[in-house]
Amino acid sequence: MPHVPKTPLDPSGVPRFRNTAAMISSAGPSFDAAHYQGVMALYATPRPGRAVELQQSGARIIDFVRCSYLGLDNHPAIAAGAATAVEDAGTLHWSCARTRLNFRSLGELEEDLSDLFDARVLTYTTVLAANMSALPLLASGHLTEGRRPLVAFDRQAHATLAYHKATVAAETAVETIPHNDLAVLEALCRSHPQVAYVCDGVYSMGGCAPLSQLRDLQERYGLFVYIDDAHGISLYGERGGGFARSVFDDLGDRTIVAASLGKGFGASGGILMLGTATQELLFRRFSIAYAFSASLNTAAIGAARASASIHRTAELASRQAGLRRNLALLDHLLPSDGGPSDLPIRTVRFGDELRAVHAARALLEKGYFTSAIFFPTVARGEAGLRICLSATHEEDDIRGLCDAIGDIRREILRST
Questions:
Q1: Residue 283 CB burial class (10 angstroms; 0-12, 13-18, ≥19)
Q2: Is the pTM of this model over 0.85?
Q3: Which domains, and CATH codes, for the chain?
Q4: What percent of the chain is predicted at pLDDT more than 70?
């Protein structure tokens, strides 16, 4: 007889941590509509600023989808750093695990980032790989003095965190708690000898973690805090340490911050910021994507080193200020869910999935590309548009987008 793997089920027989079949069944029609309307999986050629030229139609549009919040992704120094690094190395990629052989330039990059962010920094090819590497080690108890913690995931933790719940549950107890519910988290801290909390710093659909209150729980109960700050890196701090580090400035042995090198930082890859030498040694030996996968390629290394150099100049503060000015303008013209904030993500709620897809298509025809968001990215009935703003959007770009969204809203209201 064929082997049937055991599946973690709740008492009603439903998978506790993932139900991929149900997700595909529920979300499939929305994806079908978005692809049919031509608002997903577009291919384009980059143009100056936030413009791109669509491959199929040749139309030039303004992009509000990319997460390069400081506009560094097409910075000439970063592109040049990538090209130079490949030329200097004479190769793009070494096909071996990092426990065996590494580019010298990679070691120099990790030293540079460790100094820049005042942490022990390890690089990974993606933030997904960084999270995949960290969470099993957290579950093992090796980061919490040998005690396996109860690992509590925020309900809105990014998919690259939530995906690993079943893996973590193979080693320790796992709970999913309501979004930013500190009362539930504190109750868990009181009833369990060791708790670890897994959350985003800046959430990908808007909003943020209550960092100061989390630090208070850490000080009172020894809470271990694991923060994915992919959308917060570079936006805060004199050297771009990010949203999470604006509160958790000293990581110590109870905080780990994961972050992206491919969003605000403007390069490619992911990192973990660790607080102790013991943690660093553990991760360099046993984290899955370190021990069994390859490193950043030389282009990514060169790009990251160039961005690190920019982070040490006055240009960083100038771009951070430019982003805040653009956000203030956007919030003035288009009040959105969540209200004004210096975080770079806004959502415009339409509720119905097909309306959200229609709105994204109508905006694209007017020359603006935003993300149509629907289940499973957001809860059912919460569909809408996601707007990612950058420091390098022009004022006319923002005004044009807001005018277009206003027109579409009025059109939808007239049709109902």
A1: buried
A2: yes
A3: 20-67+316-415 (3.90.1150.10), 76-310 (3.40.640.10)
A4: 95
Q: Are 185 and 176 in contact (CB under 8 A)?
A: no
Report which of 71, 46, 64 is spatially closest to residue 266, judged by C-alpha positions: 71
Residue type, 90: G
Q: Which residue has the tokens 């695990």?
A: 97
Q: Tell me the per-residue pLDDT of 90-135, one tens digit each, with 9 for 90 and over.
A: 999 999 989 999 999 999 999 999 999 999 999 999 999 999 999 9
Residue 161: closest CA among 338, 17, 286: 17
Using alpha carbons, select from 166, 162, 163 the residue that is nearest to residue 177: 162
* Contact indicator for 171, 204 with CB cutoff of 8 Å: no
The token pair that represents 325 in the structure block: 């000015």
Select from 115, 86, 89, 110 the least CA-distant residue to 98.
Answer: 110
Model pLDDT for residues 162-191, shown as the tens digit of each residue? 999 999 999 999 999 999 999 999 999 999
CB 224 within 8 A of CB 199: no
Locate tokens 């100094």: which residue?
Answer: 115
Distance between CA atoms of residues 223 and 248, nearest Å: 13
Q: What is the DSSP letter of 93?
A: -
